[in-house]
From TrEMBL, chain A:
Alphabetized GO MF terms: 1-aminocyclopropane-1-carboxylate synthase activity; pyridoxal phosphate binding
Superkingdom per UniProt: Eukaryota
Family: Belongs to the class-I pyridoxal-phosphate-dependent aminotransferase family.
Keyword RNA-binding applies: no
InterPro entries reported for this sequence: Aminotransferase_I/II_large (IPR004839), Ethylene_sulfur-biosynth (IPR050478), NHTrfase_class1_PyrdxlP-BS (IPR004838), PyrdxlP-dep_Trfase (IPR015424), PyrdxlP-dep_Trfase_major (IPR015421), PyrdxlP-dep_Trfase_small (IPR015422)
Official protein name in the record: 1-aminocyclopropane-1-carboxylate synthase 7
Domain Aminotransferase class I/classII large: 49-428
Gene3D superfamilies given in the database record: Aspartate Aminotransferase, domain 1, Type I PLP-dependent aspartate aminotransferase-like (Major domain)
Entries under CDD domains matching the protein: AAT_like
Protein keywords: Pyridoxal phosphate
TrEMBL record, chain B:
GO BP of this protein: ethylene biosynthetic process; fruit ripening
Signal peptide: none
UniProt cross-references to CDD domains, sorted A to Z: AAT_like (cd00609)
Catalyses which reaction(s): S-adenosyl-L-methionine = 1-aminocyclopropane-1-carboxylate + S-methyl-5'-thioadenosine + H(+)
Spans annotated as Disordered: 457-478
Record's keyword terms, sorted: Ethylene biosynthesis, Fruit ripening, Lyase, Pyridoxal phosphate, S-adenosyl-L-methionine
Recorded family membership: Belongs to the class-I pyridoxal-phosphate-dependent aminotransferase family.
Protein species of origin: Theobroma cacao (Cacao)
Cofactor or coenzyme needed: pyridoxal 5'-phosphate
Protein name, UniProt field: 1-aminocyclopropane-1-carboxylate synthase
Length: 440, 478
């Protein structure tokens, strides 16, 4: 139903009829192909394999085991005496025990190198809501946020759709592994100014989606220095922090602030979620951690529109308060993701495909530029269609992530079984073999 | 200092309203039967706490509805992964069925028109984003729920224009008032995009009759504006007359462009589950369904909760008995509460729904002003130690009305509250402004007998639909 392009008889809002919801992007078109013909190990072996969805399915056995062993605690007790209190709890401060558990969990992920105050944690229904909410608080309609490319396509909707705020890209390229540079920051700022846009902040995703790599300490320092100099905000989306393959490689902006004695920290806000690290996207668990009291208060009030179900807060408070469980989970999850990453990198290498060196996330950033007929966005989309329709893999084209260089693709590896990943790698291998034999 | 947005620094959050002041008094000294027997009793929170035993019984019989139980854990992974903004089909089917049952199966709801949101709070904001641009306006009949000032305006930057309703005709929404509000908006250069009605009404506890609903439908069609029907209290209609939903009216012999009709629903009031954040937008307009569904990404219902609710509301026996039992308990509580108040000369608007009464304390005001209302309210909070909500916070045009919630406490607390009210009225009966020669206030001695068939209301507050015998006079028994 292409309703978005029709003017309905009775008016809807401009927001409603705009296309800023972003669903016409190829990022989502591939999903359609998958929905129509999904791969299944037993019943549909020729179907499309979904590699465009950044889900973490490698650690569910740990979660299920916890639930089996702690059934009473995580539900409402025998006879459900706890049901009433839980069902009535709608305080936008959120369950104290849950905020405490989240703070502890975030500390553990950072190896204790940063401390988090539970009273600075604001709860939202997913990071999607958190990013939008922060944008409402930090910027006025028509203002701009600077975001390094390539970036998660959902940000186009989350930061812009209902807020009326604009995104100005900070261009990054493969010459230095897509790292943000001071020059790129300045260029983006000047670009915004030349368009008469007031820049209100920078939003970084660390570890990066789609790059699958953490941001280096020196780069974080440079970004912090830049936002301080311009007197603007810094939002650090750290939803993949627990999915770094080794604990020591992730450096949070919180650690940088700690090293600076929290000077100038009132401009920094961290977004977190359990959708990726814990693999619970359905539960809608997002948080905003701000070092700015006013932002915390305002965000808390705004969270009324998007609170986390108290039923879910209760379950996760129990789970994440269990230090033994969380320590083991974090360690095992990292290990499982690393193994998966190594498996896909090896398989791609055998097929003659290079990827950006990654150390985090649920995906790798694959370089198919040598395969492009022409080094353009159209060339990239043409290749993407071949991969979708002939190889039957749904992967995400770099252009949908606003990558300035054509030929890069994000490939998810944690949302399937190892067997399915093997099948995907075989198909890629076959494609490359076919291409090679065509050339000779 | 690094700046925040205008939305963030303004007062659009609405928390400076007196609606919330009483809550602060409650929070610093909340009533507890043994630990704080002199604490403030919370009567400003419209919660439905009368049926939790029902849920508990059902949960014990259906452990598989919880993902945490040994029986339910096998569904954990697929549920935890489910983030599709269409929502679980079982959830939508179950909610659609529930909504139909609440309306006596007189209408059917299409599960594919059900869109999730972060509670009714999220639903209202989301619908506003879909229907109106910044600077445009919705008409809202007064008195109305204070939260609308935030939910419909804060981040959307849409304006609200009140449709004035008065006690002289029991706060009916008249065509005249609607037209006047529309003209007022035009005069202020505001483009009206819609009319929001809450039916059953918060704070009145009354339902809209068929004539009013038809008049409203004809009005919005004539002006080609949207109609948003907030029906979150639909299952709390505990006595005749029967609830008529906007969904029923449009099926009747009436000219209506269905693209204008949208319903906001939630399980927070009807089922007493505010913590679970189950908000619903039901629109007859395909474009709105499509847009709202995309927007629901910002406030989806937790799949864990969708799973629980789907199980619960798919159980026809449970649903049917819940609806009946809930009404019965609300009826009893309402009847006892209003009767007890009438015994001490306090009347309220005749109502048959909701979790509160609209109490008439006009005769206790020192003067007919909102300042006097605030003064009286301070007395009620500080001396009587009850947090009730002053009518002015609901934008009521007449001072002296208070919303008093009765379903968010147990029987014992109700007794304590009534005792405090009785004490206060006894102390103050000499201070009351005489309204009629027939009120022998100086020799007022109040009977504390519980003859529950004696049902007296204050003069002028008779609903034309009241089935109960009422006396037009306050009659004191010596």
């Amino acid at each position: 139903m292409a309703i978005e392009n029709e003017q309905p008889a009775v008016g809807l809002s401009k927001v409603a009829v705009s296309e800023t919801h972003g669903e016409d992007s190829p990022y989502f078109a591939g999903w359609k192909a998958y929905d129509e013909n999904p791969y299944d190990e037993s019943s549909n072996q020729s179907g499309v394999i979904q590699m465009g969805l950044a889900e973490n399915q490698v650690s569910f056995d740990l979660l299920e085991k916890y639930l089996e062993e702690h059934s009473e605690a995580s539900s409402w007790g025998i006879g459900a005496p706890g049901f009433r209190e839980n069902a009535l709890f709608q305080d936008y401060h959120g369950l104290k025990s849950f905020r405490q558990a989240m703070a502890n969990f975030m500390e553990q992920i950072r190896g204790g190198r940063a401390k988090f105050d539970p009273d600075r944690i604001v709860l939202t229904a997913g990071a999607t809501a958190a990013n939008e909410l922060l944008t409402f608080i930090l910027a006025d309609p028509g203002d701009a946020l600077l975001v390094p490319t390539p970036y998660y396509p959902g940000l186009d909707r989350d930061l812009r759709w209902r807020t009326g705020v604009k995104i100005v890209p900070i261009h990054c390229d493969s010459s230095n592994n897509f790292q943000v540079t001071p020059e790129a920051l300045e260029a983006a700022y000047e670009c915004a100014e030349s368009m008469n846009l007031k820049v209100r902040g920078v939003l970084i995703t660390n570890p990066s989606n789609p790059l699958g790599a953490t941001i280096q300490r020196s780069v974080l320092e440079e970004i912090l220095e830049f936002v301080t100099r311009k007197n603007i905000h810094l939002v650090s989306d750290e939803i993949y922090s627990g999915s770094t393959f080794s604990s020591s490689e992730f450096i949070s902006i919180a650690e940088i602030l700690e090293a600076h004695d929290y000077k100038n920290s009132e401009r920094v806000h961290i977004v977190y979620s359990l959708s990726k690290d814990l693999g619970l996207p359905g539960f809608r668990v997002g948080t905003i951690y701000s070092y700015n009291d006013k932002v915390v208060t305002t965000a808390r009030r705004m969270s009324s529109f998007t609170l986390i179900s108290s039923q879910t807060q209760h379950l996760l408070a129990c789970m994440l308060s269990n230090k033994e469980f969380t320590e083991n989970y974090i360690k095992t999850n990292r290990e499982s993701l690393r193994k998966r990453y190594e498996m896909i990198i090896k398989g791609l290498k055998n097929a003659g495909i290079e990827c950006l060196k990654g150390n985090a996330g649920l995906f790798c950033w694959m370089n198919l530029s040598p395969l492009l007929e022409e080094s353009t966005r159209e060339g990239e989309l043409a290749l993407w269609k071949v991969i979708l329709n002939e190889v039957r893999l749904n992967i995400s084209p770099g252009s949908s992530c606003h990558c300035s260089e054509p030929g890069w693709f994000r490939v998810c590896f944690a949302n399937m079984s190892e067997q399915t990943l093997e099948v995907a790698l075989e198909r890629i291998h076959k494609l490359m073999e076919q291409r090679k034999s065509k050339e000779t | 200092m690094v700046a925040m947005s205008k939305i963030a620094t303004g007062n659009g959050h609405g928390e400076n309203s007196p609606y919330f002041d009483g809550w602060k008094a409650y929070e610093t000294n909340p009533f507890h039967p043994t630990e704080r027997p002199n604490g403030v009793i919370q009567m400003g929170l419209a919660e439905n706490q009368l049926c939790f035993d029902f849920f508990q019984k059902w949960l014990m019989k259906h452990p598989e509805a919880s993902l945490c139980s040994p029986e339910g854990v096998r569904k954990f992974k697929e549920t935890a992964l489910f983030q599709d903004y269409h929502g679980m089909p079982e959830f939508r089917k179950a909610v659609a069925k529930f909504m139909g049952k609440v309306r006596g199966d007189r209408v059917k709801f299409d599960p594919d028109r059900i869109v999730m949101s972060g509670g009714a709070t999220g639903a209202h904001e989301m619908v506003t984003f879909c229907l109106a641009d910044p600077g445009e306006a919705f008409l809202v009949p007064t008195p109305y729920y204070p939260g609308f000032d935030r939910d419909l305006r804060w981040r959307t930057r849409v304006e609200l224009v009140p449709v004035d309703c008065e006690s002289s005709n029991n706060f009916k929404i008249t065509r005249t008032a609607l037209e006047a509000a529309y003209e007022q908006a035009q005069a202020a250069n505001l483009r009206v995009k819609g009319l929001l009605i809450t039916n059953p009404s918060n704070p009145l506890g009354t339902i809209l009759d068929r004539e009013t609903l038809k008049s409203i439908v004809s009005f919005i069609n004539e002006k080609n504006i949207h109609l948003i029907g907030d029906e979150i209290y639909s299952a709390t209609v505990f006595m005749e007359p029967e609830f008529v939903s906007i969904s029923e009216i449009i099926e009747e012999d009436i000219e209506c462009n269905r693209d204008l009709i949208h319903i906001v629903y939630s399980l927070s009031k009807d089922m007493g589950l505010p913590g679970f954040r189950v908000g619903i937008v039901y629109s007859y307009n395909d474009a709105v369904v499509s847009c709202a569904r995309k927007m629901s990404s910002f406030g989806l219902v937790s799949s864990q909760t969708q799973h629980l609710i789907a199980s619960m509301l798919s159980d026809d026996d449970f649903v049917e008995s819940f609806i009946v039992e809930s009404k019965e308990r609300l009826f009893k509580r309402h009847k006892y509460f209003t009767w007890s108040l009438s015994q001490v000369g306090i009347g309220s608007l005749q109502s048959n729904a909701g979790l509160f009464i609209w109490m008439d304390l006009r005769k206790l005001l020192k003067e007919k002003t909102f300042k006097a209302e605030m003064d009286l309210w301070q007395v009620i909070i500080k001396e009587v130690k009850l947090n009730v909500s002053p009518g002015s916070s609901f934008h009521c045009q007449e001072p002296g009305w208070f919303r008093v919630c009765f379903a968010n406490m147990d029987d014992n607390t109700v007794e304590v509250a009534l005792m405090r009210i009785r004490t206060f009225m006894l102390k103050n009966n000499e201070a009351m402004v005489p309204r009629s020669k027939l009120c022998r206030r100086s020799s007022l001695k109040l009977s504390l007998s519980r003859r529950k068939d004696d049902f007296i209301t204050s003069p002028g507050i008779m609903s034309p639909h009241s089935p109960l015998p009422t006396s037009p006079l306050v009659r004191a028994r010596t």
